[in-house]
Write a structure and sequence with these properties.
- The strands form five sheets. Strands 2, 3, 4, 7, 8 and 11 form a six-stranded antiparallel beta sheet that branches. A four-stranded mixed beta sheet has the order 6-17-14-15. Strands 12-13-16 form a three-stranded antiparallel beta sheet, covered by helices on one side.
- The protein has 15 helices and 17 strands.
- By secondary structure, it is α+β, with helices and mostly antiparallel strands.
- The two termini are 27 Å apart.
- The chain is elongated and about 100 Å long.
- Among the domains are: 215 residues, no CATH class; 146 residues, no CATH class.
- InterPro entries: EMP70.
- It is found in: Golgi apparatus; Membrane.
Length: 630
């Protein structure tokens, strides 16, 4: 009952907090901690160029490095990037586009670029793969409008971040060499001449200007398009600027138009579906605790009633073996230590997201915070691993701490390094620079590893976790299990329930990762996350209890695998998503997708598996401590 009360309390508290952060349709997306930049007439507003990206390929490229666009200015400055921005392929630098507050420009030539044949072929390949360009003004990505499609005269449009690099028309690849930049602003109340930028729109055009040195003032009236093929060509790049006052959009809700309007009822359906599964499992746990266990313990503790035991009391017969040290105990300690580290990181990151610190305007924030929290959570990994290592009577806690800090991170870092070789071969901005890779290694060995050793030092100084009863010297023979309690079957079926809790929300998470959409439903995410953890607790306890009733005391590893096996279903789901939602048809982009999916599933499996193990370990110690053992 204590387990149920704790789980229910955690769910209710998180639900109340999370509900307050679920944005209602049309509500302002407020970003705490950020203050607006006030511009005045005549101020120059910098336009930054970032990268090109595509839903058809996870390989972005730095815009300033493209050989077929205007070269960056000689005094171009690279923007400082956080760790998350570097890892997601951002490469931000200044440009020659002149944006002066209040000054419209009808037509301005930026440069005339002589594009070589091989560079033109590269541009054609990017256009064929639907690459989009990302520019930034006042921390807003340049966007194109799209209509929600209701056909009404009311404003039903949203922003799609980025604008197409070009388009394919009449079997020809045409590059967008003219852009109309619209800066939407709002007059700041109480400020003389102060303006706040609330929108950044880009309308791209492809114009074949021939021998004209000046660009047309109305690009829509130009009938010819600027085509690129495998031949050398001169491309004239031009732009226009419009400053438009918008009285509807405010600075506090300017990000709302970038957020994809999803049906909130779908998220609520996901929550209801998850709650139904959680309540079903909670009923099984309550039945076990309130009826079966209570009856079994009462019968077992009464000498005159021992002969009345039914077959469901088999879990008490293995009390002398249930705490026997499992095989590969050192490996189990290291894996569970990393699982605790990931669990602390995940909970902390979601809390920061709920508080509004991690939001769409903070590019790379999720990755940056997640990595730093993971590094500093190494102390928790070392502490828990050392405590469990002491239970198994390990002899070298320092070795165990080092293995804990290097096993899983080393596995992931090796995959990242090998994958990075393929990304380097494509000259993508997504390739991790040597300096960043070195910084990751320093964070790993300079912070996470020492913290793991420190945590292990305090963990091994604590008294060993006491187990009720003694372990028999000779292991008890395990009878042949019934068919529905075979280890592989229970693991496969047990992993289905945690996956069923999250598969609807998982779709939106994958869209935000692979289709460059902003994810902002952190309230729903936190609710699903709490339900997921409770479901992992319940399914691990239920499966382990029936396993012990069948007199199989090898529960250590199985309690971990039951809830972590849902990671396998997530990987299978990612394969379905790859074939149904994405249009990736090249080797390296496909390799990037599946390798990153594999790493995500490994991290998820460690999180859920550790949650199931920790709760099951607590449950078993509680039920056996209630039994009188001679």
């Amino acid at each position: 009952m204590a387990l149920l009360r704790t789980g229910a309390a955690a769910f209710l508290v998180t639900a109340l907090v999370a509900l307050s952060f679920i944005p209602s349709p049309g509500a302002a997306f407020y970003i705490p901690g950020l203050s607006p930049t006030v511009f005045r007439e005549g101020d120059r507003v910098p336009l930054y160029v970032n990268k090109i990206f595509s839903e058809k390929s996870p390989l972005p490229y730095a815009y300033a490095d493209l050989p077929f666009v205007c070269a960056p200015p000689k005094d171009a400055k690279k923007a400082w990037l956080n760790l998350g921005e570097v890892l997601r392929g951002d490469r931000i630098s200044t440009s020659d586009y002149e944006l002066v507050v209040g000054q419209d420009i009808k037509c301005q030539t930026l440069c005339t670029k002589r594009v070589l044949a091989e560079d033109a072929a590269l541009a054609r390949d990017f256009i064929a793969n639907d690459y989009n360009v990302e520019w930034i003004v006042d921390n807003l990505p340049g966007a194109t409008r799209y209509n929600l499609g209701d056909g009404q005269a009311t404003k039903q449009w949203r922003y799609r971040a980025g604008f197409p690099l070009g388009k394919v028309k009449w079997s020809k690849s045409n590059i967008h060499n003219h852009v109309t930049i619209r800066i939407l602003f709002q007059n700041q109340p109480g400020s003389s001449g102060g303006k706040l930028i609330v929108g950044f729109e880009v309308s791209p055009y492809s114009i074949d200007q021939g021998d004209n040195d000046s660009c047309p003032e109305d690009p829509l009236k130009v009938g010819a398009f600027q085509a690129v093929s495998d031949k050398e060509v001169d491309i004239q790049y031009t732009y226009s600027v419009q400053w438009i006052e918008d009285k509807e959009v405010t600075w506090s809700n300017r990000w709302n138009l970038y957020l994809v309007s999803t049906d909130v009822q779908i998220h609520w359906y996901s929550i209801v579906n998850s709650i139904v599964i959680m309540v079903f499992l909670a009923g099984l746990v309550a039945l076990i605790i309130m009826r079966t266990l209570k009856k079994d313990i009462a019968i077992y503790n009464e000498e005159e009633m021992k002969d009345d035991q039914d077959e469901g009391a088999g879990w008490k017969l293995v009390h002398g073996d249930v705490f026997r040290t499992p095989r590969y105990s050192s490996l189990l300690c290291a894996i569970l230590g990393s699982g605790v580290q990931i669990l602390v990181m995940a909970i902390s990151t979601i809390v920061f997201a709920l508080l509004g610190i991690l939001n769409p305007s903070y590019r790379g924030g999720f990755v940056s915070f997640g990595l730093f929290l993971f590094v500093f959570a190494g102390a928790f990994a070392g502490y828990y691993s050392a405590r469990l290592y002491k239970v198994f009577r390990g002899t070298s806690w320092t070795k165990n701490a080092i293995v804990t800090a290097t096993l899983i991170p080393g596995f992931l870092m090796t995959i990242v390094f090998l994958l990075n070789l393929f990304v380097w071969s494509k000259n993508s901005s997504n390739a991790i620079p040597f300096g960043t890779f070195f910084a990751l290694v320093v964070m790993w060995f300079g912070i996470s590893l020492p913290l793991s050793v420190i945590g292990a030092f305090f963990g091994q100084r604590k008294a060993a976790i006491e187990h009720p009863g003694r372990t028999n010297q000779i292991p008890r023979q395990i009878p042949e299990p019934v068919w529905f309690l075979r280890p592989r079957l229970t693991i496969v079926l047990g992993g289905l329930l945690p996956f069923a809790v999250i598969f609807i929300e998982l779709f939106y998470i994958l869209k935000s990762i692979w289709e460059d959409q902003y994810y902002y439903m952190f309230g729903f995410l936190s609710l699903v996350f709490v339900i997921l953890l409770i479901t992992c607790v319940e399914v691990s306890i239920v499966v382990t209890y029936f396993q012990l009733c069948d007199e199989d005391y090898n529960w250590w590893w199985r309690s971990f695998f039951v809830s972590s096996f849902s990671a396998v279903y997530i990987f299978l789901y990612s394969m379905v998503y790859f074939t149904k939602q994405l249009s990736i048809d090249h080797f390296v982009p496909g390799l990037i997708y599946f390798t990153n999916s594999l790493m995500i599933c490994v991290v998820y499996g460690l999180l859920t598996g550790t949650t199931g193990f920790v709760s099951t370990y607590w449950f078993i110690r509680r039920i056996y401590s209630a039994v009188k053992i001679d």
